[in-house]
Amino acid sequence: VQLVESGGALVQPGGSLRLPCVASGFTFSSYGMSWVRQAPGKEREGVASLASDGSSIYANSLKGRFSISKDNAKNTVYLQMNSLKSEDTAVYYCALRLYSTGYCPPSGQGYNYNGQGTQVTVS
Questions:
Q1: Is the separation of the CB atoms in 1 and 98 below 8 Å?
Q2: CA 100 from centre of chain
Q3: Distance of CA 60 to the CA centre of its chain
Q4: pLDDT tens for each residue of the chain, 123 residues long
Q5: Taking CA atoms, which of 10, 53, 54, 96 is between 20 and 30 Å from 103?
Q6: Is the distance from CB of 7 to CB of 115 less than 8 angstroms?
Q7: How far apart are CA 80 and CA 123, in angstroms?
């Protein structure tokens, strides 16, 4: 399994960013995919998750600003982030739990695989 995130950048408050994660080594369309993040000096936290059936789960604090989607033909899951705030500064990781359902615990833990992360800085 390989998960490769990209798209991280320095962005101004109020700006938007879309993070892609390209997956390989498993049947992408069969599993739920998630995003988690870790801010400096803080614990990892769940951001969003998308089940294989297209249903989604979001961290309560991020609903309405963040959106998760995927393109099965490209084996890619996306995180669209709008109205970015300084507190969104973190390393964002794509994560895989080997189930078809969505999974987005507040702890951001419990996944079988995650990528190397991509840095998002809002300043």
A1: no
A2: 16
A3: 14
A4: 999 999 999 999 999 999 999 999 999 999 999 999 999 999 999 999 999 999 999 999 998 999 999 999 999 999 999 999 999 999 999 999 999 898 999 898 999 999 999 999 999
A5: 10
A6: no
A7: 18
Query: Would you list the DSSP string of 33-49?
Result: EEEEEE-TTS-EEEEEE
Residue 118's identity, in one-letter code, is T
Q: How far is CA 75 from CA 3, 58, 100, in A?
A: 10, 21, 15
**Residue 15, CA distances (Å) to 39, 57, 65 in order:** 18, 23, 11
**Which contiguous run of DSSP H or E holds residue 30?**
none
User: One-letter amino acid identity for 94?
Assistant: C
In the numeric block, the tokens 């789960």 are attached to 57
